[in-house]
Known about the structure:
By secondary structure, this protein is of the alpha/beta class. Helix 6 (200-212) packs antiparallel against helix 7 and helix 22 runs antiparallel to helix 23 (714-727). The longest helix is centred in the middle third of the chain and has 18 residues, at 285-302. The protein starts with 8 loop residues before the first strand and ends with a helix. The chain binds adenosine-5'-diphosphate and zinc ion (2 copies). One zinc ion (ZN) is lined by residues 545, 547-548, 563, 565-566, 568.
Amino acid sequence: MSQPAGMRYAEVAVNSAGGWRNTFTYSIPNSLAVSIGHAVWVPFGARMLQGVVVGLSDQPAVPQTRDIAGLIAAEPLLSDVQVKLAAWIGLHYLCPPFEAAALMLPPGFERRVLTFVHAGPNLSTESLGVLDDSQREVVSLIQGRDKVELKEVERMVGQRKARTVMQELIRRGVVVKTQELERARVRPKESPHLRLVVSPPEAEEEVKRLRAGRRTASQAALLELLLKEPVPLPISLLRKRLGYSSLPAGALERRGLVMMESLPVIRDPLAGRHYTPSCPPRLYPSQERVWGRLEAGLTAVLGGTSSSKTPVFLLHGVTGSGKTEIYLRALARTVELGKKGIVLVPEIAITPQTIERFASRFPGRVAVLHSGLSLGEQFDEWHRICRGDFDVVIGSRSAIFAPQRELGLIVVDEEHEWTYKQQDRTPRYHAREVAVKLGRICGAVVILGSATPDLESYYRSERGEYELLELPERIAGHRLASLPEVELVDMREELKAGNRSIFSRSLLRGISRVLDAREQAILFLNRRGDATFVQCRRCGFALRCRRCDVSLTYHSVEEGLYCHQCNYRVSVPGLCPQCGSPGMKFLGVGTEGVEREAALAFPGARLLRWDRDVTRGRHFHEEILDKFIRHEADILIGTQMIAKGLDLPLVTLVGVVNADLALNLPDYRSAERTFQLSTQVAGRAGRGTAGGQVVVQTYAPEHYALQAAAGHDYAAFYQRELVGRRQFGQPPFKGLARLLYAHPNAGVCLKE
Ligand code: ADP
Ligand code: ZN
Ligand code: ZN
């Protein structure tokens, strides 16, 4: 394969800090066939860097170009579709083109070329007297060591100085420079296998002979095992099957009966799990209606009878209304039409139950991608997906970048989840927006599903950009068939009545009831991050920005309150501006505080805490959850992480300790978050024979977000929230972008 005739120049997104915003033009040497999506080595200044080809042309964009040094992989690593998607991400989220492309490269791809400094031929003879101080410093760093990374030299004498010092030392032959590729962090895995190399009859003869021998019984057993399964078998497996700590493989090999060879093995995150294939159930009437529209859309787009824009469907349905069943149906149809799918779920929802549901419908055809996988597993999954091994890729936000070719359907479950936004590093992409864009680029149907759709998504559906599909009821006969009642408790009344506990009387009664009945409760704190606010203990008043109406954030160092949106600042008032009470510095409690208070109030109860601090480990949240499901604890205390699609039959009480924590997030979406979180936690309370109880504690029971959540009324919330958004010029009416300039030199930031 070669590039189209005449295309002798390539636009390359280069992995360098200097590659900000633009790509670089390189010439293609005759010896190379380069196409779009190829990963390449390119010379960049004095260094050799990785890059991705994002365009080809017959004319150079600049007068002087250097040659591409070589291909990193023989086949292009990015598809044309992905190159287009990366270009959009670079522009939309303002990130260097390579960073955007890197999202889609195989795990562990990024490798640098390291420069090393070694002793030169004249190091011992040259009198060190002629060297100046910095040169001598560098020499002493290298003396007695095999090699030193150039970075270390730069760190010692400064980057600029290092250049002149090195030049001089190299000229004098005191040191030499070499370059080496950084060690790969991950590579295909191989392991030793054993294989029979004689014919079965011969082997059988041997087995008989060895059996008869005095000390050769173990050799016979091994040979027999290999005879039974005439494929190369991993040594580790043979050892396990035979129960030997070491195999008599050497003896058999010396006699020419078996051969040892190193073969690739796949690191499979689902290895050892078996899924019973299941058949799709008959759809309920509400599902039938939704499915009718979806199927028509899928067939028209993937069957090629529609030339109009590929549709995006917004599937609005409460938890347990049968959305997942619809996704499964749509995936099956997609596969029938010769295409494949990607399903995004929030990280926390990737439980064994979720995987089981998809894997049993598509046995052996489901890939799983999430941050809990080892780098090796991620690497192998990536390559198998790229080969087309899977019909369905299911994963958390970055799975949208899986190399799934022939994409026909993208599902984003719980589309309102903010974990779809990458907040902690660049590119700060939103996986839902990327999914919609990807669908448009490659002509795939997109389904966004949620019980509490993101306001912007719902707004788009009202404007006809997305097609709204609704599943208004829970499935009859399902354990959660009806929605629980939600009690809003006014914490101001509690204080008036002399109750100083963080638990209201209603919640205390509820917990006692649960403990007596040997049922389970969840205490929930919708607190995110360490953003915190100041609230009046008596009336619940919290200061908001006069300009932006977002909650002010408390900074303990300066003892001040800031608006995170416009930098408005005030000091903490001594008295509450609303009720004059002096108790204005109530910062609320975290999960640990709740645990402490619960232990005091209910000394006999078994408590389990689940938040980001205790769930760092790989399978930790699964373990905590299993423990709770096995009823080894009575009360689970946690952050919004526990609000996700769990089915917990023994839970008959959910308490939201302080709903105002979300209401006072320093974010224009605080009301929306409150509504989403409260609606979702409410959905966790069991509706079995025991009945379910939800208690939401707040200082603002009249707030529309809480009222709407208590009434399970999305439409009411949506209409009311939209009014405020329009008034303050916030999304979806205006776009909001945050530009962050970071540089050690403030002047550079100001210039940008
Ligand atoms: P959601 O994704 O909206 O939470 P699910 O698809 O998980 O809803 O459906 C809720 C429950 O109802 C699940 O246990 C599912 O297996 C079951 N279910 C969904 N659709 C059907 C159907 N057509 N027939 C029987 N059971 C169904
Ligand atoms: Zn007050
Ligand atoms: Zn402000």
